[in-house]
Amino acid sequence: MILMSVLDKKHIIVAVTGSIAAYKSADLVRQLGTLGAEVRVVMTRGACEFITPMTFQALTGNPVHIDLLDSSAEASMGHIELARWADTILIAPASANTLARLAAGMADDLLTTLCLATSAPLAIAPAMNRLMWQNEATQSNVARLQRRGYNCLGPASGEQACGEVGAGRMLEPAELVDGLSRLLTAASAMKGIKLMVTAGPTYEDIDPVRYIGNRSSGKMGYAVAAAAAHLGADVTLVSGPVALAPPPGVQCKKVRSARDMQRCVLSHIADVDIFIAAAAVADFRPTTFSEQKIKKGESEQLLTLTANPDILRTVADQVDGPFTVGFAAETQAVEQYARSKLVDKKLDMICANRVGGTEGGFESDKNALDLYWQGGGEALPMGKKTLLAEQLLVAVMRRYQYKIKPSN
Ligand code: CTP
Predict the structure, then answer these.
(1) Are both 323 and 300 inside the same structural domain?
(2) Overall average pLDDT of the 19-32 stretch
(3) pTM
(4) Checking DSSP bridges between strand 203-207 and strand 210-213, what pairing results, if any?
């Protein structure tokens, strides 16, 4: 059996910017080509001060793209065509200046325009002096890019071209090839899967200024949506009121009440393969909504509540419905309660969340989950919700594939 690299026949744009590490990009391009990738190189004007386009042209056998408004280059492959052609774009080295321009969303040269015009996964390999890397401006630019879905490879620590020692060196070409391979493998792990996730609380209005709702930041559901999009799934996020920005590449539907959420879920559920209910849906709503603000009045007020529909149960009850994953927030007898919800709601998996402890839970960025399914389970230890979301999806995919093809 011939083992094929994930990079084989992949269309990769290596974008080279103005940094002394640009010389390493020649080897990077060569290594990618050896693994079967089709590489096109884009250079900034700054990069041409460090290495000549001729080097990359010779290594790739393709013309090097430099100018945005070069009519001869646009005639061979215009910037939009190039953006569509790419399976991935790796900016290596990524200078502090380029990171700042990308973070600002500028489109003042070919590279920045390409990055705005592509839907391919993007990666940056920063390379700069250690103080420039540590600078708050650079750190906040990188964080902004990561929030928009950019993958950051490196930098490494060590001796720098300027003679200083610290973090800021570009990763070695072999490490970048490895990082890119992992990125492309991940980007296709959930390809073809339609996933829907609910997140956040629901607000059940009492009058125009008051509501009842559950404590929920939406962080876990948003992290699941972001991770699934990262893994190549087609993601719909149905979100209650939260203070979070929708993750890149995710279709986000904003709702307010449990009934809004149910309507939205049911109208988009057709063809969904995996449904993950991370929302903290209010179990009850006020039986009547007062059009006018209720006055304080007496020292006691009676609020009559009506049960809300159970969205997860409705989805799990569907004939030929999706693979269903529920969450259970418990303060005690976690496994017992979680397993009884698994059976009662006919779920494929339940993620139990121990709440009320000192670490993890509602507003925290961290959490731990105990996963249960019929005949098995797995514990995901305390970690950042972003990492936990990825681990959860790996476990979900394993069970989902087993359900479709039990022989696996
Ligand atoms: N859920 C839902 N619709 C509701 C209520 C809950 O979709 N109206 C989903 C949640 O998103 C979560 C799971 O069901 O995935 C939680 O189940 P539930 O039995 O409601 O848990 P608790 O509210 O914690 O139940 P209990 O108060 O009985 O412990």
Answers:
(1) yes
(2) 97
(3) 0.79
(4) antiparallel
